[in-house]
Amino acid sequence: MDHFNYQHHALYAEGVCLKEIIEKVGSPCYVYSAATLTRHYQVFDAAFTDQPHKICYAVKANSNLAVLNLLASLGAGFDVVSQGELMRVIAAGGDPTQVVFSGVGKRPDEIAFALKHNIYCFNVESLAELDCIQQIAHHLNVRAPIALRINPDIDAKSHPYVVTGLKESKFGIAYEDAISAYKKASNLANIQIRGLDYHIGSQLVELSPFIEAIHRMNELILKLQSLGITLQHLDIGGGLGVVYQKETPPLPDEYARAILKNCPYQDLTLIIEPGRAIAANAGILITQVLYLKESAHKNFCIVDAGMNDLLRPALYSAWQEIIPIERLNEQEAIIYDVVGPVCESGDFLGKNRVLAIKQGDYLAVRSAGAYGFVMSSNYNTRPRIAEVMVKDKQYKIVRERETIEHLYRNEHIW
Ligand SMILES: *Cc1c(COP(=O)(O)O)cnc(C)c1O
User: Ranges for the Orn/DAP/Arg decarboxylase 2 C-terminal domain (predicted)?
Assistant: First the structure.
């Protein structure tokens, strides 16, 4: 469920007509719905009430300060993958003591920064990283809270670029090495073991991989207990899929019930790291039709947003719904490839879309709230576009459109 709906002919975000935003902000731009973000977070949080738990929103899905601030105000913790994301959380008013720090390549200075800000936990992805954290913690005379990220070797059955739990994946410590890694961690003076962590992939639309993974972790927890290593938490990662087209992912409630049913450790705090499930359907990308190019073979709808603004279609052949901002149906509906201005044949937002449009019309690409703006770039020297947040009948620009001068102000002529 989201809050982007037509009222008569016009598409609205909550109580704001998108036409009004376009007139003020221009095109292209991202628009986020605060009510949708709030609802998604609260549904997720409520689904886990039967067990001590913490929702650590995965910042990489959408890291705009207004999004983080809203989620922090609802009580969210955060999963970050860089010092930059941690600084965003702090700048947005989030609590660093509610942050878990994931990622295979944390730099020593990032580790030191996170330790100085008292984060809740490092999700450690290799023994070499564990040694590095030990050294830095020793130097700072603190104990570093850690969980080991264990790779459960589970096929998440998602796109190969977003599957992270197979043994050939770069993420985490191999399952068979988990016990020895914990033994090692338990002998390091400046390491404090807090939990066990895994994350098997993104846009998962079935429960079975989640259930398989938690079973594998249950076995590990039992073995660790027998060695006298007790855990405060189990971090089950993110990855719950959303509806882009005709997918039928489990609802957060079904997902939570499946997890809770298969988690025998009732005192263990569960940490969940949803990103997409919170943000994807809380955002749209607005773009304007620049030109229609029709021929006997193919019709192109050329729009002012490209792969540099929304990469998912080009990167994963991802399908996102494209709908008109005004549904007047004055034109004949025909089939278009909706393409951007970037000089790459891979630059498309949607293929074979039936649209009744004319030059100058505006379109909305739906489900663009996660892995949208955050993956945008300046390729083709295109300024990154504005982000807007709607709350009920009001809206605010939460990131200004970049100017072209912004793009080369740090460059120098020799
Ligand atoms: C990307 C990521 C997430 C969030 O994944 P979603 O599919 O957006 O829920 C959570 N945890 C880790 C470690 C990640 O890398």
Answer: 29-369
